[in-house]
Structures are given as structure tokens and as C-alpha cells.
Amino acid sequence: MSDAGATDSGARTVERALAAVLSTTSSEGLDTGASLLAADPSADGELRRRGEQFVRLAWERGWQPADVVRLVRRDLDEPHVRLVTELITAEARRYERLTPRWAAQLTELDPEPDAELKPYRADRFSYATAVLELYLLLVRLPAIEPVGPVPGTPVHLPPADGEPRMLTRIRALLAKAEATGYPQEAEALTAKAQELMARHSIDEALLADRTHRGDVPGACRIGVDAPYETAKAMLLDAVASANRCRAVWNSAYGFSTVVGFEPDLEAVELLHTSLLVQGTAAMTRAEAAQRAAGRKRTKTFRQSFLMAYAHRIGERLAMATEQATEQATGQADAAANGGGLLPVLAARDVAVADRADRMFPETVATRVRGVTDAEGWTHGTSAADAAHVPGGGGGRDRRGRIRPAR
To answer: Has this prediction a pTM greater than 0.70?
Structure first.
């Protein structure tokens, strides 16, 4: 058979295999499709091309690499993660330039892009079964709110000069806070990082206003993984609100969409990750002490702990932002131009709210319930106090409100 004939035969085999899988929800269709593919090696190339097309379709429906991999890891198995990583890496090679967030996500998937990615290997039937299971998930992905341009779309990208020195410094401070075994040192490091974040946000807002840069709010997605995802979504909402952003949780797909200006989005990603690491470590220590004393109800303890931690962090971060703004306003007043700061920040708040409302017109705030462990709540509140941020007094009453997407 000629190459063209083999290609046509392989394409027909792939069509029949996909039709068998999509025609039924039973395993019989999957077995039929996998058997067809396993028996026809000429279909391998076409099968791979279809996978890249399905990945591209996911981008056009609003998904990004980290979103897809997170969902595959949650709903399927490790071989499927390897397969989708191969497809994403291959499909991404089509584009000369990518936005920084896309590039960062691809780097996390494939830390050595110039190296040959070791492919997933199995017998032909098992391989075809895994591929079809993955394709079934990809083809059924719904359209979601886009948080950036689809790869290949002409966009203006700033020069790649690396991240600002301030963010590098903040990242280093938070890494030290997570790694140290001394609570007082962690408090001081986290406090300094939060102070720098608030100041960086204000400086960027004033610079954009003075230079008429025309900044507009953007958006990013941050994974909210099980277990205890409600408490984790609350923590992310608290961090987002304190950094002049809005977070909307999509529980069905395991992520929150955060809307805000780019410097604030970067701060949210850094601080949320660090506080989650610190909170989880504190919860593990507290739980170990409880179990040593004979306590067994670990699930309710953990849930209550993390919800209390998120609630208290929200109060303290809100106060920290207020204090940083007051200090910056006082400094601006001393320089005889303080009247411009608060209107600039207010305009950015309005822009963020407008963008979030347009992206999620049906989103509502929901009061979270379900705290049933008093000791877990008490320990979680104490852990939030230990993760010191400036102005850790009362602050605004948030009471565990999150905004879920409908």
C-alpha cells in the first residue's frame, strides 16, 4: 500500500474509533475503538494529529495548559497526564511567541523544552485505550471565560526583561518564610513581603496614571484542589480582595478565576501559595498534637482549621492593605500631590469590578457554613495570627464569603 493509501486507511480507522467511543457511554465503545486502533499501526500519525487538534480546541474554548492538566490529573490517571503533556508541548511548538503566563505554564509542564520528552509507552491496546479516554475528556470540555488571548493571536508583548526586582525580592522572602522552622522569623519575613506587595501595587498604579499607560484589568486562574477546597477557595478570595482583585470559584473544575491588574495578580499568586503552604504546615502540626492526645476526628478538625485560618487571614490582610494605603497617602500628601492617590486606586477598583461583572454576570456571594469543630477553629485562628501580616488587628468582617461561578 502506498503512503497516501496508508494515511487514508489510518484516518478512516481513527474516525471509526472515535465514533465508537462517542456513540455510547459504556465501556464497550471504548474497547471497540481501542481494538480498531491497536490493530492498525497506520492510524498512529492521524491519532496524534487529532489529539493536537483537540488541544487547540480547548484553547479556543478558554482553557489554558495548567487548567487542562489539572483536570486530567483529577479525573484520569498518570498515563493520561503524560499523554496530554506530550500533546500540549507538541502543539505549543507551532507558536513563535507566547504570553508570559502561557510560557510559565509550559515551563512547569516541561522544564527542559529542548530535551526530548520521554513518551508514554504501553502495549498497543492499553495505549489506545488511554488515548481515547483522554480525547473523550478533551472533546467534552465546555467553553469557559477566557483569561487571555489564544496562542497565535497577534498581541503586543512587553520586552522580556525578567520579572521586576521587587517581585524577585518578595518571592525570596516568602520562600524563606515557608522554609524556616522558627515562627518569629516566618512572621517577620511574611510581614515584609506583604508590605512590599502593597507598596509595589500602589507604585504601579501611580506610574500607570502619570504615564497614561492605559492599563486594563486582566485575569488568571489558580487551582483550588481537594481536599478542603471550600476553605482553600476562601483563603484565595481573602488574598485577592486584600490585593484589590476579585476571585470567582468554579468548584466543578477545581479553580478560581482572579480578576485584577497584572501587578496585583502576581501578588495574589505569590501570597496565596505561601499562605497555603504555611497554613497546611501549621494544620499538620496542630493535628499531630491532637492525635497524640487521643483525638480521632481529623477530617472535621482539618476543615474547621483551614476555614478559620482563611477567615482570620482575610481580616488581617484587609487591615494591612488599609494601613499601607494610609501610609502611602500620607507620604503623597507631604509631597503635595496626595489628592491623586485615592482617586487612582478607586478608579482601578471600579475597573476590576466592571471586568469581573462582565466575565461572570450571574455570580453571587455565598455564605459558607459547615464549621463543626471548635478546637479546629481555635487552632486555625491562632495559626493565622502566627502568619503575621502588618496591621493584624480586627479589620473588616468577611465571615467566610466566597463568590462561586454558576
So the answer is: yes
